[in-house]
């Protein structure tokens, strides 16, 4: 008996319909570009790591919530009506410091060059990985003096996670040096994000610490394992939490977090934070020594309580004890 070919067509069409109707597998896609590395989560843009030679330090820009709204300030990378144009060196999400052997890697935009500004240069990208549940970018950076001498070597891995409602990035940073590198006592540092204006403390934003301290006066210069900064953006309640790993030097970190939208973890600025000139929060990275810093950044809907940031922190620490 010969089968009629026409009888197979409905089955094929049905199969195609099932494939089209099936949701795409959750994934993190990491793509190398000419001057940046793009990261998509679950089929939507999340952020990009800028590594071009024109960048005075690497940074992630922009940061988006799961809804697609941009929670980081876009200036000076882009123009946006209503955004403040202060602190031109506040670019997306970055890691640097304002005084390393007298060299400024914090306020180091090309417009700020006064002879003491250093540059954090991308030496090479050491790994790119996409995956169903997570993806990662690994890179080697060099902290260069104004004369072009390598002062600090940085190895960094950023791991991006797929999640239905959260956007999570884990940072694993290792610093080494071939000569003593003194990270001076200054508030101008270190692991930092500049928030979109509607989320800052001058608009709808509110800082909340792990202990429940609220607002700049209660958070700035104080030590906490984590701090959350949440408000309303384009009608949606959104926030960003920065988590400091217990294994980090001088944990829990101090917070250089301001109502105008700067959100930074800084272990070095004790003299400024305590308003005590007799304190010295500096540390010296010695040859043969390594410093490891781990942070988790969580972009979430709602506030710290509704997003369960305390539980996120607890689970992250439990999973990454080593």
Task: Please provide a written account of the structure.
The protein is mainly beta. The protein has one domain (26-319): Distorted Sandwich (Beta-galactosidase, Chain A, domain 5). Helix content is 11%, strand content 37%. The chain contains 5 helices and 18 strands. The chain has helices spanning 9-21, 216-219, 270-273, 304-307, 309-319; strands spanning 28-32, 36-41, 44-50, 59-60, 93-97, 119-129, 134-144, 150-161, 167-176, 181-183, 189-194, 206-209, 226-233, 236-244, 254-255, 262-266, 283-285, 291-301. The strands form 4 sheets. Strands 6-7-8-9-18-14-13-12 form an 8-stranded antiparallel sheet. A 4-stranded antiparallel sheet has the order 1-2-3-4, with no helix packed on it. A hairpin with a 3-residue loop joins strand 1 and strand 2. The relative contact order is 0.14. Residues 1-23 have low confidence and may be disordered.
């Amino acid at each position: 008996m010969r089968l009629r070919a026409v009888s197979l067509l409905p089955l094929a069409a049905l199969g195609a319909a099932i494939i089209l109707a099936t949701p795409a597998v959750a994934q993190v896609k990491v793509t190398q570009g000419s001057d940046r590395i793009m990261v998509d989560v679950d089929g939507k843009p999340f952020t990009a790591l800028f590594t071009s030679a024109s960048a005075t330090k690497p940074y992630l820009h922009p940061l988006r919530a799961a809804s697609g709204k941009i929670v980081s300030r876009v200036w000076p990378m882009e123009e946006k009506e209503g955004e403040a144009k202060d602190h031109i060196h506040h670019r997306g999400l970055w890691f640097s410091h304002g005084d390393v052997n007298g060299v400024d890697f914090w306020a180091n935009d090309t417009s700020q060059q006064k002879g003491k500004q250093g540059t954090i240069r991308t030496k090479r990208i050491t790994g790119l990985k996409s995956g169903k549940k997570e993806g990662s970018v690994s890179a080697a950076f060099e902290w260069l003096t104004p004369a072009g001498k390598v002062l600090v070597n940085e190895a960094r891995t950023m791991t991006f996670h797929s999640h239905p409602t959260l956007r999570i990035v884990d940072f694993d940073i290792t610093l080494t040096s071939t000569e003593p590198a003194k990270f001076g006592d200054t508030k101008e540092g270190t692991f930092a994000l500049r928030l979109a204006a509607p989320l800052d403390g001058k608009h709808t934003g509110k800082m909340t610490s792990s202990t429940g301290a609220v607002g700049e006066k209660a958070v700035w210069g104080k030590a906490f394992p984590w701090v959350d900064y949440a408000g309303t953006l384009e009608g949606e309640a959104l926030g960003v939490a920065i988590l400091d790993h217990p294994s980090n030097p001088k944990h829990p970190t101090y917070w250089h977090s301001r109502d105008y939208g700067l959100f930074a973890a800084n272990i070095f600025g004790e003299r400024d934070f305590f308003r005590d000139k007799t304190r010295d929060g500096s540390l010296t990275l010695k040859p043969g020594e390594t410093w490891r810093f781990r942070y988790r950044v969580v972009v979430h809907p709602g506030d710290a309580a509704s997003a369960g940031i305390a539980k996120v922190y607890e689970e992250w620490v439990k999973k990454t004890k080593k």
